[in-house]
């Protein structure tokens, strides 16, 4: 044992990681890489409280948990054995796994020879999910939604707050966000000096990273699998477009397999730390054609409506659109998008119907506020048609008409004031904060493009002829 090596490890988390590696990963050679140094440097800044709110987005299998959840807490106890930790993951088993790795390192001959005189683990609090040392420092490991009432910490680490499946469930994702807001964020011993570190891969626009960044006040380190020159992180050492994060570990064959296995959405989020593929996924923004002047031979003018279930400040929008066709091409002519209650929705349906008297068919999804609107306006406005997507989800409905978009048959107005919001939603779909515009368009395009929809309801043109101009 070299006293110099010990002193270096005490001063540098990255050096500590390198020296401890054979102990926590016996038989596996440590592979150095610049991104590991970046992560360690940022964690040191947190330890010095130069940064107190840190988010790190990196791909899976990039040694993030080993550094943040296993080695960093141990290294910090060398500096200050009184430090109290709360480490959380989406599953309690994962949080406990990393806590046990830390405890094994603390009890190893390697650690005891170097720093064993600084503190001892106590016998009465030495469990899998909680252990303490004789300086009153402790570590608690919990699942994301486990109760932590009464427990506090100097540093809170949240490592992968969402599983891949739970991130795409609105209920489970929102439960995790609420747990952070109402429980975990209140667990710092001293709110003025305590620190929170979130390290994860992006899974959804409204995952915990997106939730926190929208509020502001967080430092973000974003290191994608392949370098994106158009959106580089200031700490990224790469300069060449597409350059891999860790060439020795993520070879071209490995990256190709990841793209195949994860698909465009999975790879964009988990690997590129961008929860939406560039340009969109199911519908590509680059597939749309944009019109400045409409053809004079438009037919089959159709309204499509999607109504929110409830009127809330941050909830879904009500959307109404007007579509028409010119042969194989379908044109989006107009759109209204608003938040409001039943009276607002009734007013807008009347207004759009008066503005576009050419529309014979007016499609309204028979759920949420759509059902009472159908009942209230059925005798007032002609051509109201109740639609029912059945068990199909929004993504499946959009997929049904995606070939028409890819073929260049879908036209949108180039100068509409709402165009930017529309394209942003398309790019984010189905992982974005909102999907009302896409769902409204899918409903119209299924009627205009698909003779018999995948949902099973027939739309034969001869049966609909009396409804169209």
Query: How does the overall form come out from the CA principal axes?
Result: elongated
DSSP summary: helix tally? 15
Strand-residue proportion: 15-25%
Low-confidence stretches: 452-469
Report on this model:
The C terminus is likely disordered. Strand 11 and strand 12 form a beta hairpin. The termini are far apart. The protein is built from 15 helices and 15 strands. Strands 3-4-5-2-6-7-1-8 form an eight-stranded mixed sheet, sandwiched between helices. Helix 3 runs parallel beside helix 4 and helix 12 crosses helix 14. With 469 residues, it is an alpha/beta fold.
What's the arrangement of secondary structure elements?
Elements: H1 3-11, H2 13-24, H3 34-47, E1 53-57, H4 64-79, E2 84-89, H5 92-107, H6 109-115, E3 121-126, E4 130-133, E5 138-143, E6 155-159, H7 170-182, E7 195-200, H8 208-215, E8 219-222, H9 252-271, E9 289-291, E10 299-306, E11 318-326, E12 329-338, H10 342-355, E13 361-365, H11 370-377, E14 384-387, H12 394-406, E15 410-413, H13 419-428, H14 436-449, H15 461-464
Parallel strand pairs: 1-7, 1-8, 2-5, 2-6, 6-7, 9-15, 10-13, 12-15, 13-14
Antiparallel strand pairs: 3-4, 4-5, 10-11, 11-12
């Amino acid at each position: 044992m070299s006293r110099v090596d010990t002193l270096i490890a005490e001063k540098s988390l990255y050096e500590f990681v390198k020296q401890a590696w054979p102990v926590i990963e016996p038989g596996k050679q440590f592979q150095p890489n610049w991104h590991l140094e970046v992560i360690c440097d940022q964690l040191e800044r947190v330890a010095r409280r130069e940064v107190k709110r840190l988010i790190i987005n990196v791909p899976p299998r990039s040694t993030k948990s080993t550094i943040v959840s296993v080695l960093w807490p141990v290294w910090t106890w060398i500096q200050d054995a009184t430090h109290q930790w709360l480490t959380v993951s989406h599953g309690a088993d994962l949080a406990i796994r990393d806590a046990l790795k830390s405890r094994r390192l603390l009890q190893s001959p390697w650690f005891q020879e170097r720093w064993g005189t600084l503190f001892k683990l106590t016998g009465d609090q030495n469990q899998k999910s909680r252990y303490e040392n004789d300086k009153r420092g402790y570590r608690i490991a919990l699942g994301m939604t486990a109760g932590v009432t009464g427990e506090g910490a100097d540093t809170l680490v949240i490592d992968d707050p969402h599983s891949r499946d739970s991130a795409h469930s609105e209920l489970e994702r929102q439960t995790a966000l609420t747990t952070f807001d109402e429980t975990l964020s209140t667990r710092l011993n001293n709110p003025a000096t305590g620190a929170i570190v979130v390290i994860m891969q992006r899974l959804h626009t409204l995952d915990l990273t997106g939730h926190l960044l929208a509020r502001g006040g967080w430092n973000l380190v974003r290191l994608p699998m392949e370098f994106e020159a158009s959106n580089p992180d200031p700490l990224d050492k790469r300069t060449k477009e597409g350059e891999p994060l860790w060439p020795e570990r993520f070879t071209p064959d490995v990256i190709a397999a990841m793209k195949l296995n994860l698909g465009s959405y999975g790879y964009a989020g988990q690997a590129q730390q961008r929860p939406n593929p560039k340009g969109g996924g199911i519908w590509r923004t680059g597939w749309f054609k944009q019109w400045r002047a409409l053809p004079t031979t438009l037919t089959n003018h159709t309204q499509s409506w999607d109504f929110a279930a409830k009127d809330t400040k941050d909830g879904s929008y009500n959307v109404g659109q007007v579509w028409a066709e010119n042969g194989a091409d379908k044109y989006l002519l107009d759109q209204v998008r608003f938040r409001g209650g039943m009276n607002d929705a009734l007013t807008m349906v009347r207004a759009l119907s008066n503005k576009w008297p050419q529309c014979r068919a007016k499609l309204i999804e028979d759920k949420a506020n759509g059902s009472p609107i159908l009942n209230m306006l059925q005798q007032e406005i002609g051509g109201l048609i109740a639609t029912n997507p059945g068990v199909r989800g929004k993504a499946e409905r959009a997929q049904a008409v995606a070939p028409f978009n890819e073929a260049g048959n879908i036209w949108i107005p180039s100068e509409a004031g709402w165009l930017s919001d529309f394209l942003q939603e398309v790019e984010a779909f189905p992982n974005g904060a909102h999907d009302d515009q896409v769902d409204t368009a899918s409903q119209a395009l299924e009627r205009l493009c698909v003779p018999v929809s995948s949902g099973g309801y027939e739309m034969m043109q001869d049966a609909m002829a009396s409804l169209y101009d």
